[in-house]
Design goal:
The chain is an alpha/beta fold. The protein has 13 helices and 16 strands. 35% of the residues lie in helices and 20% in strands. It is globular, with a radius of gyration of 21 Å.
Length: 406
């Protein structure tokens, strides 16, 4: 994500918008669904995440008519889930030409999301797009503008928005239980390794995989671990951070930070380019937010959020949430007081409720829980931190939500 590449990508995004504005007209309206009508879908990007989503969509009555992937092994695996009537494609545009497809699931690498979404809008499809929404701030802004020229339903795959337990935590904060929140901590701790599985090059269209990114020679690690390379991704900053920063901005009614700073390095997961360990600091008008991740140590394994207010503290993770009244004294770091509320049902990030919300909105034409604007606002904050990392400087986001100065 060097400055030259960012400029080039921003130009491509703006150029694409010129052509799409004529094709995606708000008067376009697709099929009207009854409450029990089956929705027919196609998937673009049938890797592990995509196929997992396919199973969940299928469980909720979706018919998979088409599968697209540039790697034949993934394509075959996706078609096995879709069923014998489904057809396979290596060119997503051919899939989008199908008039019988109502909606598409985009589960491709980040650098393809912009073009795949715009092409889906051109074809009049509703879209469930995996997070993070965009590869850059400019792309995200363009995606929001183009969606709003249409009547299409677009859900971003940030499933915490549809979690009943996370929604309950939002209500606790809205009731003023925590008082003024001055510090929020986002954390993610895993211990990972790079283990490159063989790639059958005769079944991979590497040129199509690279697509709009800068051209580069094939390396198996870049295909298997594309999230670790700047040409294809914003790294774990945007990949995991989108989930957590979205919740933070949602709970605090913030749409963007003032500025960001970041430091990180690759300590273990060579030959990755994106840091496996980092700490970012975000300045918001009334609170400070830290976002810390390492993939080299699993102490307190998984994700966690801590909202520290002047009256109480709320912490949540995959297991559930706890609320602690202030002050803690005479407790210490090693001896916590009894929580005022503790709910630990587990499974806070299950995706079926989020998928159900999308399918319900395809039928009702109501806006989903994670709209295109929400997806853009969440990842924009993290793109700002990546810019600060690359520039080794404090990055300030303009009031327009697009201009960045360092």
């Amino acid at each position: 994500m060097d400055s030259n590449e960012m400029t080039r990508r921003g130009f491509l995004g703006r150029s694409a918008a010129v052509g799409l504005g004529v094709l995606a007209h708000p008067s376009f309206s697709g099929k009207v669904f009854g409450a029990n009508d089956r929705i027919t879908m196609g998937i673009i990007g049938a890797g592990g995440m995509g196929r997992g989503h396919m199973e969940n969509f299928k469980d909720q009555g979706v018919e998979w008519a088409a599968v697209c992937d540039v790697y034949g092994i993934h394509l075959d695996a996706g078609l096995e889930i879709a069923g014998p009537e489904a057809k396979g494609y290596t060119d997503h545009r051919k899939l989008l030409e199908r008039k019988d497809i109502d909606a598409v699931l985009i589960a491709t690498p980040d650098h393809w999301h912009h073009d795949h979404l715009l092409d889906a809008l051109r074809a009049g499809k509703d879209v469930y797009c995996e997070k993070p929404l965009s590869w850059s701030i400019e792309q995200g802004a363009n995606m929001v503008a183009e969606v709003r020229k249409t009547d299409r339903i677009v859900q971003v795959g940030m499933q915490r928005r549809s979690s009943a337990m996370v929604q309950e935590c939002k209500q606790i904060i809205d009731q003023g239980t925590l008082g003024e929140i001055n510090l929020v901590r986002a954390e993610w701790y895993w211990n990972r390794e790079v283990k490159v599985r063989p790639v059958l090059t005769d079944r991979l269209d590497w040129g199509r995989f690279v697509g709009p990114a800068r051209k580069q020679p094939f390396e198996p690690v870049r295909f298997r671990y594309w999230r670790y390379f700047w040409a294809f991704s914003g790294g774990n900053m945007t990949d995991q951070g989108t989930h957590l920063i979205d919740v933070i901005q949602w709970f605090t009614n913030a749409t963007q930070p003032i500025a960001a700073q970041c430091y990180g390095q690759v300590y273990k997961l060579q030959p990755a380019e994106t840091p496996d360990t980092f700490c970012a600091i975000f300045e918001f008008p009334r609170f400070t937010c830290t976002w810390t991740l390492t993939y080299t140590n699993s102490f307190q394994n998984g994700w966690g959020l801590v909202f520290q207010g002047q009256k109480a503290t709320l912490e949540l993770c995959e297991a559930g949430y706890r609320l602690y009244q202030e002050p803690w004294a005479p407790s210490t770091r090693w001896i916590r007081p009894e929580p005022a509320i503790e709910k630990l049902p587990g499974g806070l990030t299950q995706t079926p409720p989020h998928i159900k919300n999308f399918l319900d909105c395809v039928r009702s034409r109501q806006q989903p829980n994670a709209t295109i604007e929400i997806g853009h606002q969440a990842v924009r904050t993290l793109h700002l931190a990546n810019i600060a990392h690359h520039k080794q400087a404090r990055a300030v986001l303009g009031e327009d939500g697009l201009t960045v100065t360092t």
